[in-house]
Each structure stands twice: as structure tokens, then as C-alpha cells.
Amino acid sequence: MKQPNQILTRRRFLAGTSTAGAVAYLAANARGADSTPPSTRSPRSATPPGSTRSSQIPSWPIHDEADASAAADVVRSGKWGRLAGRKTLEFEESLRVKAGAGYCLATSTGTTALLTSLGVLGVGPGDEVILPTYTWVACFNVITVNYALPVFVEPDIETFQIDATKIDSAITAATKVILPVHLGGSPADIDAVMAISRRRGIPVLEDACQSPLAEWKGRVVGNFGIAGCISFQASKNLTAGEGGAIITNDEEFYIKCFNYHNQGNVRAGARQVAPLGRGANFRMTELQAGLLLSQLRRFEEQQAARGQNAAYLSSLLSQIPGIAPARIRKECTRHAWHLYMFHYDQSQFAGLTRAKFMRALSADGVDAGPGYAQLNKTPHVRAIASNPHYLRIYGKSGMAAWEERNQTPITDRLCSEGVWLGQRTLLGGRSEMERIAEAIRKIRSRASEIAKV
Ligand SMILES: Cc1ncc(COP(=O)(O)O)c(C=O)c1O
User: Fold this and answer.
1) Which residues does ligand 1 sit against, CB inside 6 Å?
2) Atom of ligand 1 at shortest distance to CA of 181?
3) pLDDT at position 109, please?
4) Fewest 10 Å CB contacts: which of 26, 39, 334, 360?
5) Burial of 296 (0-12, 13-18, 19+ CB in 10 A)
6) Hey, what CATH topology would domain 4-43+55-62+298-372+413-451 get?
7) For the domain 65-292, what is the CATH code?
8) How many other β-carbons are positioned within 10 Å of the β-carbon of residue 76?
9) CA distance 128 to 165
10) 0.85 exceeded by the pTM?
11) Ligand 1 centre distance from Cα of residue 63 (Å)
12) What distance in Å separates the CA atoms of residue 438 and residue 214, rounded to the nearest whole number?
């Protein structure tokens, strides 16, 4: 499966992870990670000099001549838009069947899948939408482009997923949608979220952008709420550079989504529903669909490899004091392994800070990221408190209260101790998992020395 030119040598790998390269790598492989550049100082390696060896971690995306032909076929067909060709329809049908869903709509990105869904749910100014604090900024953006109020809920420290026990108290009369995120490939506690949804009568839109075909009690995520959104952006396990999809079991919702993503225009020959008066062009291109169909050929095999390697890595890392892999709920019957997330406890590493730990990992050729920064405390997010439209809609006191509510000690802790490995690392084979565990063990044994650098 791996092409020789897709296996990175250790030297190229390290070059790609230093300074600017690390930022680019994180952007492409662990997008959403705090892109703090590693120090420009030469990091101290825990591996003795001269012990360089080849990394078996493939570059991403993996592609071959069949992918190139798939793209070329679309080019030659001259049918590049979904309204002209059949590739998007074909991809939607493949994904629908794999997800066990009634309907599937492909979109230009995961963000536009979310925007379409929230648009159809009628989210607008004055509404509140509940989302986790520990997530990618897209979740916030799709709420605020609609001038709705994002209401943050803290994660559960062990699983990194939204803490469903905190959702109830975040609900108000203005809550329009609950937007849980299945983070990193692992399902959030969707039973608990759906129980709240039923009791309070509030729809759930599942953000499964990082968790394609992950399962909760044997059912693919995205099938629990009104719909689920998936991303095929460049770092994702299934990718066409950009792309997205909505899966749903509600025919009317699907038809409305089709119309919304098609500038409000109805699909010829399809059942009609009341017009929404809103919409945009969020259509997938045939080129994206052609590539996705081609990438789908190796998806199952790659997912199986990621799963096996992740389980092996967890068995190794769990033996190292101070390293705790994210807890996976027992109801998770299939993890999509977009991210391998773990906790780093510096008190077990002689006080070695996470930043220094990560630099040492990088020096040993282990490409890790620090995970999300405190989203709710970024200037981008806080700016809505002084946005004139927000002030007009929610009032000065409303926005001040919103700022007050954004005290998130669990998120702060998770953002300071989380460490991520990207999905392509999990395609590296058992020896790579051993190398990662060995690097961490060595860093721990020399932690006080490394801390002084
Ligand atoms: C949790 C989450 N939601 C939404 C998105 C948005 O998807 P896209 O980048 O395809 O627009 C992403 C992707 O990066 C994501 O990780």
C-alpha cells in the first residue's frame, strides 16, 4: 500500500518538523492543533547520536496512479460540477451505505456541511447553540456566521469529549441546537446527549468531522441526531484536500439541505418541500468526488491499521507513569482514529514542561502536537463580545454575561496537558509504535537533564 516515495527518511521527517515545517505539518496533519512553533533552539534528543533510522510513517495523503487516473477521468469528462456529472451521486451513495444512513449529501467542506445543517435548522440571531470548548474553531464559526450565540460546555477530562453532564445547565429558552463533537475519531457520549435532547426537545447536530464511520454501540455516529457532518479536509482520514458530507435519516431534512446547499434551488424530479428563503453554493465538485471514491478503496484497510497500531501504542504507553491515553468509552465499537490523544503529567517527568517534552519528542523524530489551545479565550472568539451586531442582538449586558460564563478550568487543564499524534503516525507499523514509546521512556529517564536545557 505504501509507495516508496511516501516513506519519509528520518532526516526528511525531522526537517519537516522543525520550526516553520512543524507549523505546516501541524496544519496539514493535526489541524486545529495549537500551532506554537517548536523552539528554534536545537532540541536535546533522548536518543544517542548516530542511532538514526528510517521512519516508516507515510506522508499524507497516500496516493497512487489510480488516484491520478480518477482525477484525470473527471477532467477528461468535462463534467466538473455535480449538477453535470455522476461522481458526487456515486460517492454519496457509497458513503450512505457505509454509514447505514437513509440519506447522504456531499458538500464542498465539513464547514459547509455544518453551515447547511444549521441553516436548515433555522439557526439565526437570538438563538443559542451549545458546543464543546475543546474543539476546532470551525464549530464556533458556523454558529457566529449566523449571529447565533455559542454556548461553551467543558470537556470530560478523561475522554477529551464534551461532558454531557454539563449540557443541561447550559440550556436556556434560547437554545436552538446542541452541537456535540465526536473528537479525534472517538464518539462523544451520544446516549447522554440524546437523552437531554429528547427531554428538552432540542435537536442534536453531530459534528463527526473527525470521526468518519466511527461507531457507538454498533451504529455509525451521525445517525443519532437529526444529522451528522463529516469532513474530507486535507488532514482527515478520508480526503480530497477539501470536502464534506451530511448524513441523515430524515428525508425532509435531506431535501432541505440539498436545496440550501444549491442556492435554494430544488433538485429536478425530487419531492418538494416548503422553500427556506436561504441558501448558498456549498456543492462538492466532481473532482473532489472522483478522488474521494478512489481514496475510499483503501479506507477500510487504513482504518484497520490505525486501530491495531493505536491499541498497541496504548498498551505500551499505559505502562509509562505520567502518560495516560484518552479514555475510550466502552460503548465505542469502532474508533475512527483521526487523532491519538494522551495526557502528559509533567510531575511524573521531573517537572519537564510539556513544551520541552514535545521538543524532545520532535528531536527523536516523533511528530506530536499540543492539541487545541483554549478556544474560548482566543481573541477571535472573544471579539464577538464587542461586535456591533452581537451587541445589538444580545445587548451589552448579554455579551458581558456571555464573557463571564466562559470560565473553563477543565478546558484550561486539558489544553495544558494534552498531546496529540496525527492519524498518519498510526499508519507507521508496530515498530513505529515501539519507537514512540521508547522515545517517551527515554525522555522520562533523562527528564531532569532535558529540563535544564
Ligand atoms: C471538529 C471539526 N469540525 C468542523 C471541521 C470543519 O471541516 P472542514 O475543515 O472540512 O471545513 C473540522 C475540520 O477541520 C473539525 O475538525
Assistant:
1) 31-32, 109-111, 135-136, 138-139, 181, 207, 209-210, 231, 233, 244
2) 1
3) 98
4) 39
5) middle
6) Aspartate Aminotransferase, domain 1 (3.90.1150)
7) 3.40.640.10
8) 9
9) 18
10) yes
11) 22
12) 29
Where residue 268 falls among pLDDT bands split at 50, 70, 90?
A: confident
Q: What amino acid is encoded at 277 in this protein?
A: G
* Fold: same for 4-43+55-62+298-372+413-451 and 65-292: no
Whether pLDDT at 51 is above 70: no
- In 145-236, which residue ranges form alpha helices assigned H by DSSP? 190-200
CA 138 to ligand 1 centroid distance, Å? 6
Task: Kindly state the cell numbers that stand for 277.
Answer: 428563503
Strand order of the β-sheet with 244-248 is: 103-107, 244-248, 227-231, 205-207
Question: Cell 441523515 appears where?
Answer: 248
Q: How would residue 269 be classed by pLDDT, with cut points 50, 70 and 90?
A: confident
Helix (H) or strand (E) holding 138: helix 138-144
Identify any residues that bridge with 245 across adjacent strands, giving them in sequence order.
106, 230
Residue nearest to atom 10 of ligand 1 (CA): 110
Kindly state the cell numbers that stand for 109: 467542506
Residue ranges covered by each domain of the chain: 4-43+55-62+298-372+413-451, 65-292
Is pLDDT at 333 greater than 90 in this prediction? yes
> In whole angstroms, what is the distance from residue 424 CA to residue 237 CA?
8
Q: How far apart are CA 228 and CA 336, in angstroms?
A: 15
Packing angle of the helix pair 354-363, 430-445 (nearest 10 deg): 130
Separation of CA 109 and ligand 1 centre (Å): 8
* DSSP state at residue 150: E
- In the reported structure, the alpha carbon of residue 111 is separated from the centroid of ligand 1 by a whole-number distance in angstroms of 6
Q: Which residues pair with 332 in a beta bridge?
A: 216
Looking at residue 189, its amino acid is: D
Region for residue 57 given its phi and psi (left: phi exceeds 0; alpha: psi -120 to 50; beta: otherwise): beta
Task: Among 108, 182, 210, 375, say which to mutate for ligand 1: greatest number of ligand atoms within 8 Å of CB.
Answer: 210
103 CB-near residues (< 8 Å, 6+ apart): 96, 247, 248, 249, 250, 251, 253, 254
CB 395 within 8 A of CB 52: no
